[in-house]
Structure formats: structure tokens, C-alpha cells
Amino acid sequence: MRKILFTVVAGTAILFGCSKNSDKPASIQGTWTANQLVATTYFNGVLSGSDTITSGTLQFDANGNVTTTDSSGTTTGTYTFNTSTNQLTVISNGDTTNANVTQLTSNNLHFNSDESSTVSGFTVRVTLDADYKR
Fold it and tell me: Which domain covers residue 67, as residue numbers?
């Protein structure tokens, strides 16, 4: 009786404990509409300003091209997205932006970046917290 009970419990655990192979991660490809983007700028470690943007789109194509549209116009570039590390890299107008994707579902894309550079002896740091909807 114990062997039968053990077999039933073990079989149930195996059946319900395994994830389905058909579960696919959400794709970054497609058009995303800005919900809220917060860009914060620091000069030599001192907060300089913060901007919040609530309009614009990102279009990630299957061929690695990305198009950004906002109030200042349209910009094109290329992107890569590493699903293992959740790292998004966008190259546009000679600038490379690396972002950490913290949420990617069929309807939500959230990422942030934190990048610094030195300009005329000043350290400029820009952080971006971006939330998009499909």
C-alpha cells in the first residue's frame, strides 16, 4: 500500500511540478507606447534635473532595427536583446545605450539604464527609468 501511495504522490509531483515547454518568454519585438519615462541628470554627482515623458513609441523589428518616435522626431538605430541576461543594447546616432530589462510581458516593458561619461572635465550621469505598454 505504501508503494502505491508513494508512486501516486511522486507521479503527481512530477506531473504538476514541471513547467510546460510551450511557455514562451514574451518577445520585445513590436511597437511599444510610452507610459512613463523618467530621465535624471547629475553633474559631478549633484542632481541637475529630472524630466518625465509620457508620450512616444519604440518599434523593435525582427531584423534588429529600432525606431524611436517622440516629440522631437523619429530616430532609427539597431538593437540587441539578450534574453539570458535581460540586457538591451541600442545603438543610435553613434551612441550606445545599455539597459537592464526588469519586466517583459506580452503587454508591459520596463527597463532602466545608468550611464556616465566625462565631458569637459565634468562627470555627467544620466539614469533612465522607462515603462512602456503594448
Answer: 2-133
